[in-house]
């Protein structure tokens, strides 16, 4: 059956930023499809809640509470997955972010921090994971998480958008280096209704404005993203590598205006 191609039975996944939102949904989706999951983020309480959801599927979960801006900490997740589960097949690089700031107020240091948190962390985990994937699983899949503002223009996104554009192109370059045994793909997300957008959920005017600015007339939910992540990790996506899957409701411009002042 075609649905069997979406299974990742008895595989092992590392998911960063797994305490909430897209990371949590991706971890649970992978578990529902048959994977054991190492969950990593800063908040242990949030991770334990997600771990319970993973275990409710009948799969194993292991929690690592750490500051994933620390490159040694994020790289260490690969070895931990191997020690706990005996193998590693899948990596989901979901950690990242940056606050919107007017261009002329964006200091070079903020660009460097955004690149570090979104790109360097992903690369650190990829470098650490690849030897374990090849040795224990023979082949595997890596999915990086980017954003629509890494592709389209929008005010206030100089640091975040530049970093997320780098994530997308890093995906293409890594895919070329790691083919054919490890596939590397990317999901580029539009607005997703997670805790980061709580203000949207609480303000009907802003929420309606964003929905009206989105061709599909709604804001995404974490399961929209996690379904794409699962597709790219599973045999269903086995003929894709170096691709950026746009999961953004059809956006061609950002649908959230931060009201930044003109020059």
Secondary-structure topology with pairs:
Blueprint: E1 12-16, H1 21-32, E2 36-41, H2 44-56, E3 61-65, H3 71-85, E4 90-93, H4 108-137, E5 140-147, H5 158-178, E6 182-189, H6 198-202, H7 204-212, H8 222-233, E7 244-247
Parallel strand pairs: 1-2, 1-4, 2-3, 4-5, 5-6, 6-7
Describe the structure.
The protein has 263 residues and is an alpha/beta fold. The protein has one domain: Rossmann fold (3-Layer(aba) Sandwich). The chain has helices spanning 21-32, 44-56, 71-85, 108-137, 158-178, 198-202, 204-212, 222-233; strands at residues 12-16, 36-41, 61-65, 90-93, 140-147, 182-189, 244-247. The chain has a 7-stranded parallel beta sheet with strand order 3-2-1-4-5-6-7, with helices on both faces. α1 (21-32) packs across α8. The longest helix has 30 residues, at 108-137. It is globular.
Number of domains: 1
- CATH 2nd-level architecture: 3-Layer(aba) Sandwich
Please mark out the parts with pLDDT under 50 across 5 or more consecutive residues, or reply none.
none
- Compute the number of helices: 8
CATH topology (fold) name:
Rossmann fold
The beta-strand count equals 7
Quote the distance from N terminus to C terminus: 58 Å
The helix-and-strand class reads alpha/beta
- What is the highest CATH level, the class? Alpha Beta
Radius of gyration: 18 Å
What global shape is seen? globular
* Series of H and E elements: EHEHEHEHEHEHHHE
Helix content: 40-55%
Main sheet? 7 strands, parallel
CATH homologous superfamily title: NAD(P)-binding Rossmann-like Domain
- Which strand order do you get reading across the main beta sheet? 3-2-1-4-5-6-7
Please report which band the strand proportion falls in: under 5%, 5-15%, 15-25%, 25-35%, 35-45% or over 45%: 15-25%
